[in-house]
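Q: Here's a chain of 271 amino acids. Please give me its 3D structure as tokens.
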Amino acid sequence: MSEKHWTLDDIPWQNFDAAKLDGELVKVVKAASLVEYNAADYATYLFRVFPDDQAFQAAVKVWSAEEIQHGAALARWAALADCDFDFDTSFKCFTDGYSLPLDAKASVRGSRSGELVARCIVEVGTSSYYTALSEASEEPVLKEICRRIAADELRHYKLFYSHLQRYLETENIGKLRRLLVALGRIGESEDDELAYAYYAANGNGEAYDRKRWSRAYMARAYRYYRSRHVQRAVAMSLKAAGLNPRGRLAAWSTVLGYRFLRWRQRRYAAA
């Protein structure tokens, strides 16, 4: 990772323009701030999975600090966009209702290589997501924040990918297994974490229903993706799985993936 990283003081907060806000975008940003800020728990989990790898743990500490800063930047912007947003209360609601397997002694992916494939997929998703949000937003401060976060997430992907290559030298995990891990992690994008974060940020005291709040989040989040964002995510995901990121599989996966995403978005919006 680079030695010097941007700070909240580098964000041009004075350029905030309330006239260019997208109310639906504000809702997903509030949810994203909670997920990003919760990176300390992810770091704890990774420390338990890699207890004897000091080099990786040092990298995770830096990664976690940057992810927490992402959450802080998004939370500060969300407070400007919605004066009623109470980040501390929302974050407590989120962490009270959703937790990671912090007592794990081994990766839930079956191997350290599998864990690193999953981490690559997460960074693929977030880099593409924040790129999509940056391009969709007309509010200049959010556009800049998301641009910076997307660049960080791409760099984080490269970080986890480099450690994946190191572990593949000693762990016998084939391309099929790596692909299955990648597909499994992609499928988890609609699990409780994002749904509960959206609920914690926007629920206003209502009861939590996973299906309802998952649909509410995905109906909004998916609307900002374009084909180019899916293409990039597919290429990076296939690379993490050890497959050709620019072949026929990548081309067909991009087409089918984007069509599926748009279909899901319309279905969720209707519901």
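Q: Can you summarize the key feature?
A: The mean pLDDT is 94.
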